[in-house]
Amino acid sequence: MSTLSVFDLLAMHPLVADLPAGWLHRLAPHARPVHLVTGHRLFHEDGPADRFWLVHSGAVALDLHVPGRGDVVIDRLGAGAMVGWSWLLAPHRWRFGAVVAEDVRALELDAARVRAVLAADIDLGRQLDARFLAVAADRLQAARHRLVELYACPGGA
């Protein structure tokens, strides 16, 4: 991954790969390639949501602190995922925690700068907001399925 430019890495990520090159060039200055090792905590629940990641390889576990049980993993995100969307909405605080479950190679993006780019280009903002909303909707649907499996009655009653 290190021999590729940030632009190339953006162009390879499923979330933004089909965007026009001009838009990717606007996002590229606000991203940097990162290699994160297993066990590295990306963020804690209620911490400042000041960046997000486009994962190229590896896995990230999303967790939620449960009193008396500690941090409970609620989802696992892999290659092609976007980690973090709390940066999109004020007060820009993480709603979950996240820890690297398998070494990750990703692009880390500066949230404040990306928000400024999106505010300055309404069409790009609209396009990315729709994609971010689709990510959130997919994760909500996956959470619903996990809840149904968790609370399904034995024997299919």
UniProtKB/TrEMBL annotation:
InterPro entries: cNMP-bd_dom, cNMP-bd_dom_sf, RmlC-like_jellyroll. Residues 15-135 form the Cyclic nucleotide-binding domain. This is Cyclic nucleotide-binding domain-containing protein. Pfam families: cNMP_binding (PF00027). It comes from Actinoplanes sandaracinus.
